[in-house]
């Protein structure tokens, strides 16, 4: 979280790490990111929301 928040992620309203990780990726995808989330985040090619069970 510290790396993402310190590297441009929107952490002001982030209640969940997934929001911070996503905004970090959105802001750094063109230039490439440098954060290593040690398995706490993964890049997906499909929207995972339809597969989440509540």
UniProtKB/TrEMBL annotation:
One of its GO terms (cellular component) is plasmodesma. InterPro entries: X8, X8_dom_prot. It holds the Pfam family X8. Residues 1-54 form the X8 domain. Keywords: Signal. It comes from the Eukaryota. The keyword Signal applies. This is X8 domain-containing protein.
């Amino acid at each position: 979280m510290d790396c993402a928040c310190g590297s441009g992620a929107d952490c002001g309203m982030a209640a969940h790490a997934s929001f911070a990780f996503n905004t970090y990726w959105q802001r750094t995808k063109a230039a490439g990111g440098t954060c290593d989330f040690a398995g706490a985040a993964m890049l997906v090619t499909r929207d995972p929301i339809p597969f989440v069970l509540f």
